[in-house]
Amino acid sequence: MTAVSQIMKQPDCVTYSADARGECFRLLVEMAPDAILLYDARNDQILTANRAAERLFGYPRDEILKWRPEHFYAPEQPDHRPVAETFAEHVRKALDGEEAVFERLIRTDTVSDRLCETTMVRLSSEAPLLRLSYVDVTARLAADRNLAERAILLATEHELSPDGILIVDENARILSFNKRFVEMMQVPQALIDSGDDNKMLAWILDRLVDSEGFQARTRYYYEHHAESGGDLMTLKNGRVIDRRTAPMRTAANRYLGRVWFHRDITDKIRSKEQLERSNRALRTLSRGNHVVVHARSETELVRDMCRTIVEAGGYRMAWVGSVANDPLKSISASAVAGEGGGFLDRVPISWSDEPGNIHPCGIAVRTGEPQVLQNFADDPNLAPLCALAKEYDFASCAALPLKIGSQVSAVLAIYAREPNAFDAAALELLQELADDLSYGITVLREREKIAAADRRWRNGLEGMIAAISRAVEMRDPYTFGHQNRVAKLAAAIGRELGMNDDEIHGLFLAGVMHDVGKITIPAEILNKPGKLSKLEMKMIEEHAEAGYGIVKDVDFPWPIAQMVRQHHERLNGSGYPQGLKGDAILPQAKILAVADVVDAMMSHRPYRPTLGIDAALAEIEGHKGELFDPAAVDACITLFRKKSFNFDGPTKAAS
User: CA torsion, points 609, 611, 616, 618, in degrees to nearest 10?
Assistant: First the structure.
């Protein structure tokens, strides 16, 4: 017994009556999922219909039997042919013993028209009975259409993608690639037509700078199906490709192969590099301008400029060369910074126009235009320099002429480790830096000329002041050296009080000139050994005003005339010539007053011997705050008692 017979507990062979078999067949038709009609072609009449037909057409069975089959076809068909005509063709075909299969829109009573596949088969050769079965293919057709549309969309996206796409199967055989991939890899049409994977791979490898690395990375992804990732490919034509890959898998996670995406990022990289070069040059320009503003000498300027170019710009070396008009027309370095100064010792640089002299610095001097060498290795004319440049890690350089006035008198040279470091934008900024450097040198040279003239003027003026002072003192041998000593002590007191060098210098000159008015007093009065009369004393006191009159029209940068006029004024107003009090007296004049009294009491006079330093200090200390400025008195006492001040040595303010 079969397994089924055992289950049913029936013998293997069972016979069924004709009625039983007929009933089984009827049930088979009735329960079929497809709509089925039994059609009598001779009488053009539907004999029966199953349940699925009721569901499809939306009519009860007795209604269906009232209609001819054409009734259920929609009048508007996709091929626009009359329904009766096409239906008759299929009936004839079925009656001839063939299976007639066709798709037509079915008109239903419940929903919109449905597209059905009708299969028409003759059931008996003796009678023209046909079985019409209907399968609703509306959903399938929509799915097929959607699938086709998606395929078209994917194919369009595949071809229009800005990325080069390569698809391989699980065995790494090429399935497809798009037009962009072909363009990117410059694949010839003949190779595409051949369909040879090995030749395609060989072609791609030949385009790469690092073919071995490419193969190793590719092999890794083929061996690790689950991983996604990417790398960069550099082509021999200089293009850079960002390559990305991801596995293709079914819903059941079966590995189908890989998709490789290739995006040309060369322009992006070059834009980034250009921005970095511009930022680098701009940073150098900014820091370089700071150097120009704060430099105090030409030597300091070119030295700090070269250092800043290397430190702020990250360049390998920078140097400034001075142009000589010697027979060799040489260019000698006046400042160098960076790692490569030895390069200049081994490469004589000239601006002569001798054949073969093509160093960028020489050309920049000759033409007055900036010169750029983007890659030492690319210029066959610089073969002798190429090995040396490589030794010092130089790849590119820029030479920028420095024009002082209308002449190129120097050149700024900048060297970089990487090739193509000086594009147009960077060069424009660096030329601006060179122009600023030229301006800075010009200003410093002009400033030095002015300073030299100022020194000559000051030296002449101070020499004249000293001569006048000596002339005054020659008329009064007892006070010889008094003005210089007062000047030196006043300068020392000013320094003790925290005055700056310029203020001290003005105070010193005022001290040298403070008694210049005595030149108007008769010598016999100045040298009189006895006590002076009131009239004679009045004449002596007029020397301060007279000195002011002599000096007032001289354009000093300090108020020397007022200092001379006020050096005998006292805080309580008891002084002369104006009887000024307190803050009405210049601070410098208060210092001169203290220094004048101290030196006068320490010096011999015709009418008395020297009183000494202790008496002099006691005098000013005893009248501190009454006659003399307290701060000046304290500073003077500190100089003598704690710092051992003396009048020996030079009598300059800087002493």
Answer: -150
Q: Domain limits at 229?
A: 161-264
Taking 80 as the threshold, does the pLDDT of residue 460 lie above it?
no
Task: Give the closest residue to 595 by CA, choosing from 642, 541, 636, 651.
Answer: 636
Residues contacting 339, CB < 8 A, separation 6+: 316, 317, 392, 393
**SS3 state of residue 497:** coil
pLDDT at 232: 93
Which stretches of 446-602 are assigned E, i.e. beta strand? none
- The pLDDT tens digits of the residues spanning 307-357 come to 999 999 999 999 999 988 888 888 888 899 998 768 887 877 888 877 767
| 291 lies in the same domain as 421 | yes
Its pTM stands at 0.52
Q: Is the pLDDT of residue 12 over 70?
A: no
The average pLDDT across 471-478 equals: 57
Angle at CA 62, nearest 5°, toward 58 and 64? 50
Q: What percentage of the chain reaches a pLDDT higher than 70?
A: 85
Q: To the nearest 10°, report the CA torsion of 114, 117, 121, 123.
A: -50
Residue 555 carries which side chain, given as an amino acid letter?
D
**530 found inside a domain:** yes
Q: How far is it, in rounded angstroms, from Cα 245 to Cα 223?
A: 13
Is there a single domain that holds both residue 215 and residue 340? no
Together in a domain, 413 and 522: no
CB neighbours (10 Å) of residue 34?
Answer: 16
> Is 8 within the bounds of a domain?
no
* Whether residue 259 is found in the same domain as residue 276: no
DSSP strands (E only) in 375-493: 396-404, 407-416
Please state, rounded to an integer, the average pLDDT across all residues of the chain. 84
Sheet with 164-169: list strands edge to edge.
Answer: 174-177, 164-169, 255-264, 240-249, 229-234
**Torsion angle (degrees, nearest 10) of CA 279, 285, 287, 288:** 150
